[in-house]
Amino acid sequence: MHVVHIALQAISGAAMTWPLTFLLPFANKGGILRRVLSHLIVVGVIAFLWNVFRMATFDAMITAPDIWQDFGGWYFTALLIFGLWAALYYIVQAYTAVAAERKQAQMERLRRVEAENLSREAQMKMLRYQLNPHFLFNTLNSISALVKTQRSDQARTMISQLSHFLRLSLENDEWVDMSLADELEALKLYLDIEKVRYADRLTTEFDVDEAILDAQIPALILQPLFENALKYAVAGRVKGGTIRLIGRKEKDHVFLSVADTGKQNSLSQDDITKLEKGVGLQNIEGRIQAHYGLSGRVEYQLSDIGGLEINLSFPYMPVSISSQK
C-alpha cells in the first residue's frame, strides 16, 4: 500500500503542476514585491491542496489517524517540491527565450550577410559590365584606324581576335570570379588583339608563380591594367614599350604587379601622387574593395623599368575551395 500511495502522490503531484503552467504567468506581472507575493500564494495554495490530498489518501489507505498532527512537516515538503518546480519552470522559460533570441540573432546575421553578399555581387557585376563597352569602344576605334589606313588584313585579324575575346566573355558572363590561369588566358586574347595594332612596338613579360594559378580572382581584373599601360606607355612612344606582369604568393595573399616603361620622359613621384585615374583604374579599385574589403589593396608606385607600377594584393583562396563554399 505504501508503494501504491507513492505512485498516487507522483501522479497527483504531476497533475497539480498543470494549473501552475497557467497561474505562474499571471503571477509574474507587476512590481517585484507583487510578483514575489503572487508566487508565494500560488505555490502555497497548490502545495496545500496537493498536501491535503496525499495525506488524506495515506490516512485512508494505511489508516494512520495521527498523521494530521504532522501536517506542517508534510506541507513543508510539498512547498519545497512545488517551489523547485516553479524555479525549474522559469529556468526552462529563460533558456527557451535565450535560445530563441540566439536563433533570431543568427537568422538576422545570416540575412545580413546574404544581403551584403548579394549587394557586393551586384556591385562587382555592375563594375565588370562597365568594362565591356569601355574596352569595346577602344577596340573598335583601333579597327577603324586600321581601316582608314587601308590595313585591311590587320583589321580583319583584329576583328577575328575581338570575336574570340567577346565569345569568351559572353560564355562566362555570369562569372564573378575565375582562376588566375583563366584570367591569364583571357588577358592573352586581349593582347593578341592589341598586337595586331602595335606589332613589334608592344613587348610583354610574364613572370607568374605556378603556385597561384589556381587562385580565385575577380574576372577580367588584369585587362584594364594592361589597357592603361598600353595607352600611356606604348601608344605614346615611337619605339613602343614593355608591360610586365609579376605574380607571387606572399604568405596567405596573392600579389600581382603590372609595370610599364612609361612615357618618353620617366615618371616622377609627383606624377604618381597626382595620377589621374580613368575608368579602368577606378573600376579595379571599386571591384577590389567590393570583393575583399580591407583585405584587398591597390597601390601605385614608380616601377624599376621607368613607368607606373600598379600592385594588387588580396587573400589567396584556391578556386576549388571557394567553389565548395
Describe this structure in words.
By secondary structure, the chain is an alpha+beta fold. The protein folds into two domains: 105 residues, no CATH class; 174 residues, Heat Shock Protein 90 (2-Layer Sandwich), CATH 3.30.565.10. Helix content is 65%, strand content 14%. It contains nine helices and seven strands; from the N terminus they run ααααβαββαββααββα. The strands form two sheets. A five-stranded mixed beta sheet has the order 2-4-5-7-6. It has a two-stranded antiparallel ribbon with strand order 1-3. α3 packs antiparallel against α8 and α4 runs antiparallel to α5. The longest helix has 78 residues. The radius of gyration is 39 Å and the shape is rod-shaped. The two termini are 65 Å apart.
Major sheet summary line = 5 strands, mixed
Overall number of structural domains: 2
| Coarse structural class | alpha+beta
* CATH domain class name of the largest domain: Alpha Beta
Summarize the entry for a quick read.
By secondary structure, this protein is α+β, with helices and mostly antiparallel strands. It has 9 helices and 7 strands; from the N terminus they run H-H-H-H-E-H-E-E-H-E-E-H-H-E-E-H.
List the SSEs and their pairings.
Layout lengths: L1 H26 L4 H31 L8 H78 L3 H20 L5 E3 H19 L3 E7 L7 E3 L4 H12 L6 E10 L2 E8 L8 H5 L5 H14 L4 E6 L5 E8 L3 H6 L1
Parallel strand pairs: 2-4
Antiparallel strand pairs: 1-3, 4-5, 5-7, 6-7
Helix pairs in contact: 1-2, 1-3, 2-3, 3-4, 3-8, 4-5, 6-8
Index terms:
325 residues; alpha+beta; 2 domains; 7 strands
